[in-house]
Known about the structure:
By secondary structure, the protein is an alpha/beta fold. The protein has helices at about 30-50, 105-110, 115-120, 150-160, 200-215, 235, 250-260, 280-285, 300-310, 320-335, and strands at about 60, 70-75, 80-85, 95, 125-135, 135-140, 165-170, 175, 185, 190, 220-225, 240-245, 270, 290-295, 315-320, 340-345, 355-360. Strand 6, helix 4 and strand 7 (about 165-170) form a beta-alpha-beta unit. It is globular and about 65 Å long. The two termini are about 25 Å apart.
Amino acid sequence: MSAILPSIASRELLCRHFGACGGCTLQNLTARDYRDLKRNKILDALARSGLGSAFLEDVVNVPPRSRRRATLKVLKKSGEVQIGFHALRSHAIVDMRECLVLTSGLFETTQCLRRTLAAILREGEGVDLYVFEADNGFDLDISLNRKLALDIFAEIAAFAPKLNIIRMTASSDLLYQAAAPEVRFGKARVKPPPRAFLQPTREGEAVLQSRVLETVGKARNVVDLFSGCGTFALPVAENAKVHAVDSDGSFLEAFAAAARTTSGLRPVTIERRDLFKHPLTAQELNRFDTAILDPPRAGALAQAKMLAKSDLKRIAYVSCDAASFARNAEVLADGGFRLAWIVGVDQFLWSAHIELAAAFTRE
């Protein structure tokens, strides 16, 4: 698959905060050096797992200014609000006045929040600010564990519509809501809870979904392990029965609600389960034709061992960490699985991270 952009790294494309901000450390690389660094992350992972690199495809890039969600650091100091990312190798905040990673809308919204955040925060108080650009507006959550004065609610209600902020929460407690945020997965419209795990870019999400669907193919009965709100399961459910498993009840509720209100889906079931402590057993997995595996950054070694012991023939594997992918891939290979293809999806621009999508098959 060709990249969305042939190259995104350029010595001319430098943020004013480059060198201070810890968010983007690779903007000064040439396009070739940047591409090679990302590719080598995958090659090193494949070498550690003994799988070889014959089926490695070109890395797919997402465009600059495409990241739709982020967790920003906020601090009120001397009456002014600093908002941005941590400085390189420091807990100091780089007060963000430019960003080549966030969508333009998300960046502009965060800049306009300074006055309201100054009213919310006490002097010297710092919080995390989760920001997400949904399909119908902006969703914000502040890591604040105290009650706010009533006049703050009035101020939020006054400025939010001007910025198309449709929901604002404080540690998931509702401060303001004009509408429930929505995202579309295939035919389904999902209303995710605050701080839901969602793919960081729409472009990267589309690539991952297409590769998962390619791997699932004509399977009739699919299990989605670490399903979240249904990023992959809901598009797959347009053609196959799906059993979605996750430990987060709020994610599963959003998933189930979307499935109920979407016509044309095959039967969908959900199960709340901690797959780290209680992975699906080989016997349970044998009820399905194909598995989708999209674990957190730490991977899912216990679940990978059960997949290796099962009779499954195909696994669509999505990973946001090359090292944990390598560990789990080695287990799958020892269980008889063969790597059919692997592709890097560069959703974490100008950082050392790389997303992976891979297909495992066996006779």
